[in-house]
Amino acid sequence: MSRKEIKEWKWSDFGELNQNQIKKKAEQIIKVMSLEEKAWLMSGDKAILSVVPMLIHYNKNPIPAGVLGNLNIPGILFADGPRGVVLNHSTCFPVSMARGASWDVELEEKIGNVIGIEAKSQGANFFGGVCINLLRHPAWGRAQETYGEDPYHLGEMGVALMKGVQNHIMACAKHYACNSIENTRFKLNVNIDERTLREVYLPHFKKCVDQNIASIMNAYNKVNGEYCGHNEHLLREILKNEWNFQGFVITDFVYGIRNGKKAIQAGVDIEMPYKWKMRPKKIIKWVKKGDIPEEYIDDSVCRIISQEIRFAKNQNSELYNKDKIASQTHTNLALEAARKSIVLLKNSNEILPLQKNDIKKIAIIGDLANTENLGDKGSSRVYPPYVITPLQGIKNEVGDNIKVIYDEGRNPSETIDNVKDSDAIIIVVGFTHKDEGENMTFGGGDRDSLTLKPKDEKLILKLTKSFDNCIVIMEGGSAIITEKWRQRVPAIIMAWYPGMEGGTALAEIIFGNTNPSGKLPIVFPKSLDQLPYFDAKTKEIEYGYYHGYRLMEKEGYEPAFPFGFGLSYTSYKYDNLKIHNNKIHKEEDIMVSIDITNTGKIEGEEVVQLYVGYPNSTIERPKKELKGFSRIILSPQETKNISFSVKPEELAYYDSKEKKWIIEDGQYIVYVGSSSQRKDLLKQTFTIS
After folding, report:
1. Are residues 626 and 683 in the same domain?
2. pTM above 0.90?
3. Which of 168, 278, 297, 383 could form a disulfide with 271 if both were Cys (CB 3.0 to 4.6 A apart)?
4. Residue closest to 361 by CA, chosen among 313, 323, 394, 409
């Protein structure tokens, strides 16, 4: 095959090739490439000075890497995420943590599908926004970019987003691995034992690899003394060899690696976004000196070209065009995501939903009620064409039939005078990009506190002392400690950063047009001492086996709001839990079924959760772990039978000495219910032998 013939290939015809055919095509290209051309593919194409416009509007246009015109190789055209495509003015969905609260994998795949369409419509072929870092501690500034604290839940949601995106373009899971402190991310060393790494911090990445994700992005931090981008154990031994990952590894931007030679030896394939530590001249020099085998370069290039071939599908102008970007169909999906993400945490005396016929005057209080609060303004920032704030959403909902008073709440005494005689008082409080997010010069970073700001707590306490009809809406990227005021407020809603249609969804829930159905993907603690150690300034930390609900249950702590918790305007009854074979072999799936009945008067959506416990384990294990969930719709008085299938390998633990996964013989407990708290769960036992 000549260079001329290869250059004349029409890449858009390659979309239907199978894996073997794709690899053959890639190998044909590699045979005619010079070492310099191969090295060119292994780093971004941007000049280092391009950092200036990126600081003004990061990733406004796709960021190229390895575009090679003399062989017609398209390269990587990078678009970031994860709350939407960061290019230009795309649809802005609720942040990933909010979508994690939906527990809706079908919805998440639809969101991925929209992201893929909008990215490709704007010239990208690569989405770097499948963020599945495990939330170890809610103070992590970028908590909003991931789905929650549980490896199983993270894996299911990450795979769903990936599948949707990869209907159209390459998807990338990040940040591999143990990335969950923001302020010292460039210097931090995470010490972690092999069992904890394998069981807690890697399973969700493996799920994406098993589903054939195109790319993995290495994290900035160190793991056990080695930067992730230099970590051969993580990249080459586990990811590429043990898991048989067929895609390519890219670095996080700029400081994703410190030494190009070490990075290539460890298993990095592309440095982003510049030609710096892995620039072609260096790679050529290392190969010629024998420091790096050319086989490593060929392997990297084969991986890159294979994925580019795999996703070089036809440009269908009816599917991929500018009219699709933030179209009505896409923004409607953002609204659906917001509806399903919002969590009702408290509703004493059924104060919600508000009945319009009983209300003449409503007061909306707080700066955030009238703020376009979409979350972090770092690399995940999306610029939608419009944003519906809580205030605007409520005004749109009530029209001229109810008087709406807005007060910023800066002077509580004046606010009390302004809102007297209101039939309902809605207080919107929480955080913004200045308080949490990617660590930028203008704000972000890890949270200084898990409580609300003192002025917000003071406002709530003042208002609840004068009025008994206060509803608190919280915005933020992870858990908020509410102990100072929680008992004083009849209703609390966690809205997260709810996206461009968040205000519409909030209004629908407040007035009962939508029944709340979100469930917490993280624990909301009562105090900091219920959480693992966290220091935003540390450069060295140990990540232990327990965090979140696992730690709460181990220590016997009672959280403010447990993992998996969320209220509804209807009620559900769980009954008839069955395990269809109580004694199984290690090759058999565990088949579980349960009846769920909507015992209320309105339609609702319930998230059914399945946990497994290990009462007789020979080693220390969590009291129980999430191993399945299902979101269902139930009409009033309707009963549905829900089935789960759990693979025994999901119940294995990692033996560090034997370096293998072990499924123990013995008794297990299946728990099924509406949250992780024991009172919400039915249980049955089964035995593996």
Report:
1. yes
2. yes
3. 278
4. 394
Phi and psi at residue 177, to the nearest 5°? -150, 170
Q: Over the chain, what is the mean pLDDT?
A: 96
Residues 621 and 543 in one domain: no
Taking alpha carbons only, the member of 269, 135, 133 closest to residue 208 is: 133
Domain of 368 in residue numbering reads as 341-555
Q: Are residues 533 and 582 in the same domain?
A: no
d(CA 253, CA 270): 11
Confidence (pLDDT) at 10: 87
Q: Are strands 583-584 and 343-347 parallel, antiparallel or unpaired?
A: unpaired
Evaluate whether residue 40 is within a structural domain.
no
Is there a single domain that holds both residue 525 and residue 576?
no
State whether 544 and 594 are in the same domain.
no
Same domain, 473 and 602: no
Alpha helices (H) along 379-440? 390-398, 412-419
Query: What CATH number corresponds to the domain at position 409?
Result: 3.40.50.1700
Q: Which of 564, 684, 579, 574 is nearest to 639 (CA)?
A: 574
CA distance 314 to 41: 23
Residues 614, 648: Cα–Cα separation, whole Å = 13
| Same-domain status, 498 and 594 | no
pLDDT in tens, 99-139: 999 999 999 999 999 999 999 999 999 999 999 999 999 99
H/E segment holding residue 335: helix 328-341
Report pLDDT for 316: 86
CATH of the domain at 640: 2.60.40.10
1 pLDDT tier (thresholds 50, 70, 90): confident
User: 632, 644, 645, 646: which is closest to 596 by C-alpha?
Assistant: 632
Q: How many domains does the chain have?
A: 2
Residue in 509, 499, 524, 486 with CA at minimum distance from that of residue 568: 509
- Residues in a beta bridge with 590: 646
Contacts of residue 105, Cβ cutoff 8 Å, sequence gap at least 6: 156, 157, 159, 160, 631
Residue 314 has pLDDT above 80, yes or no: no
| 105-121 helix and 328-341 helix, angle to the nearest 10 degrees | 150
Same domain, residue pair 503 and 417: yes
User: Would residue 22 count as lying in a domain?
Assistant: no
Strand partners, 567: 344
The answer to whether position 8 is within a domain reads no
Measured between alpha carbons, how far is 269 from 251 in angstroms, rounded to an integer? 8
Q: Compute CA distances 667 → 603, 615, 629, 684, whole Å.
A: 38, 7, 22, 10
Does the pLDDT value for residue 443 go beyond 90? no
Contact assessment for residue 73 and residue 41, using Cβ atoms and an 8 Å cutoff? yes
How far apart, in whole angstroms, are the C-alpha atoms of residue 564 and residue 313? Answer: 40
Locate all alpha helices (DSSP H) within 76-144, ordered by sequence: 96-100, 105-121
The confidence band for 190, taking pLDDT boundaries of 50, 70 and 90, is: very high
Amino acid present at 462: K
Residue 242 and residue 198: Cα distance in Å, rounded?
A: 12
Boundary residue ending a domain (526, 555, 584): 555
